[in-house]
Amino acid sequence: MLELATQLLALSTAGERVAVVTVTRVARSAPRGLGASMAITSGGGVIGSISGGCVEGDAIVLANAVLADGIARAARFGFSDERAHAAGLACGGEVDVLAYVLQPEDEIARRALARAARDERVTVAIGLREENRGIIADASVLSRLASPVAAELDAAAVLSETERIADGSWLALSRAPRARLIIVGAGEHAAALCRVASAAGFTVTVCDPWPLLATFERFPDASDIVIAEPAEYLAALASEPGSFDGRTAVCVLSHDERIDIPALHTALGMNVGFVGAMGARSTVAQRAVALRERGVPDADLARLHSPLGLDLGGSTPEDAAVAAVAEIIASRYAGTGAPLREATGPIHARTPADSPSSDIPSGAPACSPL
Description:
The protein has 370 residues and is α/β, with parallel strands linked by helices. The chain folds into 3 domains: 1-110, no CATH class; 121-176 and 355-370, no CATH class; 180-332, Rossmann fold. The chain is built from 11 helices and 16 strands. Helix 6 (188-199) crosses helix 11 (317-332) and helix 7 packs parallel to helix 8. It starts with a helix and ends with a strand.
């Protein structure tokens, strides 16, 4: 539901009833995971997807039934490999879904949607059992549930995930602000990286001391453009609580050592998840010497991803941007960067380290990924 916040908030504000279908359980494989949602408007419009197209037809029928009488309904698609294929689940998996009406007067839902639409941290709970099925509650309800595994709940492990509460009575839907990318430099490679990273879901800040280069005309996909010395800007962020987290990436692309070296020196001293820099191998070696001379320890230098990007073989600014974003994502999830056909096990591995702190109450029961 929360990933559809912008569209759902507009419909709710306009007073339109909407049926939402949310995945509450996934067994084996499915195109989308736990918490994926789609919505059907009273006028027949469809927003989002729960399976990439596999079971949308059945979900629409379920949603229309809920819109007709307002009663939340649970359903299961795919009971075995054979029946899953018959139901349209090409992956041979099994999903449970809950269809419920999003009422315009539901203040808890509207507040949560507004926060998600503003790219803020938010968690809500959706009732799964018959007595509370389809009810949307704020996160405080989770702290009232008793669980023998409550001590296992670490808020940092669940924020950007969607989990089913251990006793099965609630589904916690959580959404984190988008991961942040700070690009130092405003050249053509930076412009390409801004476009690709924004499309990949990052909120992008471009920082450069030259106002003629760092403009929204050149960087229309940037969330923010900062005209400043990058090292000074990064130092200011380092002293501002909450301005970055473990998912934040800093990529230095200015091709000017007078900018690159101070910026990297500062970035490597910050608790960000990724620091990268573009450059030829000779430039990388020279930078390492210069950074050591500034007192950067080898342990911090080992965090520097330079030359930036995975080896994809391309050479254009767009190719380099895709390679850089791929390395950032691989680093975040501890991926190998190898072709999936050469690997075994789950395609989408869950990595709790990806998530910053959550607003789920610390006394809430632990969540069990499915």
